[in-house]
Amino acid sequence: MNLRFITKNYAVSPQIMPNDIERIAKDGFAGIVCLRPDGEEPGQPSAAELGVAAEKAGLQFALIPVRSGTTPDSHSVNAMRRALLEMSGVDGTGKVLGYCRSGKRAADIFELAQGAREEAAAPTQSYDVVILGGGAAGIATAASLLKRRSDLTIAIVEPSGDHYYQPGWTLVGGGVFSQEQTRRSEVTLIPKEANWIREAVVSFAPESNGVTLSNGAKLHYRALVVALGIKLDWAAIPGLAETLGKNGVTSNYRYDLAPYTWKLVQELQHGTAIFTQPPMPIKCAGAPQKAVYLSCDAWRRRGVDKDIAVEFDVAGPSLFGVAAFVPALMNYIRRYKVDLELKSKLVAVDGPKGIATFERVREGGTETVERKFEMLHVVPPQVAPDVVRESKLAGKDGFVTVDPATLRHVTYDNIFALGDVAGTSNAKTAAAARKQAPVVAHNVVATLAHRAPNAEYDGYGGCPLTVERGKIVLAEFGYGGKLMPSLPKWLLNGEKPTRLAWFLKEKVMPALYWYAMLKGREIMVKPKYKTGG
Q1: What integer pLDDT is reported at residue 533 of this predicted model?
Q2: Domain named FAD/NAD(P)-binding: which ranges (predicted)?
């Protein structure tokens, strides 16, 4: 091979052969980019053949065919920029090899991709739509927008290189999913037509249609979509942050801690296990009790449940906010002999001593109670992100103030919000964001065309309450607690535990998330309109 390094982390080469792959891997390369179409000359190995060899050697492989004698188009340049981002890793140090017939196309497209990257980091840029947040809500909205208007210029602002399927973390903590099943690379999910800006937003200027990023760059927009999620406030409970992941203290609300939950469940033989739920709002209000049920079911199956005292401390006045689902859930509270403590809020944790302190509201006033534990599963208080809470977009609760139907800001007509950051009364779940994304996409397109937004969100939220391994109470409801089942009751009664709901949770919903929601395929979530649409 005749390698030529353009930078210390990018080299170009003439046509490589399958027997070169092992050496490329030994030389420390992380990935290979093929810039050559198949069949340019006799004896040329196919990209598929080389891709298989690269995969066997542990290398990433990308095919971006550029015809000889032509200038790479914008789609090819954008694909190259994305491949470099993905292959070079979070710290940007992974080595990448690009090849073609002579190496020239591999060098040319690299220079163009670097120029595109520099343009993306320019001090001021303008887009039709700027989307803040590359989580479920942000990517789904971008994909739905591009389905409607493929010519839109869209920027997605997201600092993280990883994307997580957070609804799966409960099942990781219950020993059903592996940790890695819930994580994918962000660059593989963001629509190819959108520009990914890997920074964080630090301030808003809604009067001038602008936002400022952490690198000092300013973005100008015609429409802004805020999908920044919710902040998990671990520091709000004294002693919690420093003991997470040890001393028997865990949480399914973090990717790195969910496996520790399952480890504790497997190892616990006797003692006290305490589960907590903070005041609303929180993301997926059913997740705290899912951890209770899955843990209890695992102990029951192992035959150690009689030696483990289980306590569930809920800061609110009821087990679940929609009364129709409470009877089925209470059956499991009784079945597992859970000590249910309502109006009981965790206020401090002493991990080394194994003591959790609660404030409990009783008829005579508030009392402070210390509880000894062997296992403590904590769900932290949750608030709007700091940058939103301190901005002009926020209401009194700190979340973005929007019309609950159109999801448009009540003051700024070209700003929309969805997902956990929106100041709406619906359940903060991925299912809600899946329903909201097409509504926002339709209304953004209408706004750009100077039409009134007429797509409406009905408050739908889905919460699959995992009550045992193999059965789920599928709670689906909208604004005001109105029941909104997706399937007929004769097929799936959401008010009772069913195996069909478990199948949907384990098999269907992850696929729906990765391959429909994030791709703009609006299965069973087509928007409803005020007048026609």
Answers
A1: 46
A2: 127-249
Dist CA 326 CA 125 (whole Å): 51
Contact 103, 109 (CB under 8 A): no
pLDDT at 119: 55
Task: Report pLDDT for 90.
Answer: 55
DSSP 506: I
Distance CA 62, CA 51 (A): 8
Residue 357: its H or E element: strand 355-362
Stretch (H or E) spanning 355: strand 355-362
Active site residue: 34, 100, 296, 463, which one?
Answer: 463
Residue 365: predicted pLDDT: 93
Residues of the chain where predicted confidence (pLDDT) is lower than 50: 532-533
Residue 92 token pair: 């940007």
At residue 76, the pLDDT reads 86
402: left (phi over 0), alpha (psi -120 to 50) or beta: beta
Location of structure tokens 């952490």: 214
DSSP H or E run through 436: helix 430-448
Return the structure tokens found at 378.
Answer: 């904590």
* Cα-only R_g, the chain: 26
Q: Which pLDDT belongs to residue 237? A: 98
Q: What share of the chain is helix, strand, coil (3-state, %, to 5)?
A: 35, 25, 40
Question: What residues does 308 pair with on adjacent strands?
Answer: 271
Cα dihedral 410, 320, 286, 366 sign: positive
β-bridge pairing 461-468 and 471-477: antiparallel
Vertex 455, ends 516 and 186: CA angle to 5°? 35
- Asked whether 239 and 350 are in contact (CB, 8 A), the reply is yes
pTM of the model: 0.82
Q: What DSSP element (H or E) covers 223?
A: strand 218-226
Structure tokens at 83: 């491949």
Q: What pLDDT score was predicted for residue 117? A: 55
- List, in order of start, the domains of the chain with CATH numbers: 4-120 (3.90.190.10), 124-230+384-455+504-529 (3.50.50.60), 234-381 (3.50.50.60)
CB 371 within 8 A of CB 272: yes
Question: Does the annotation count 296 as an active-site position?
Answer: no
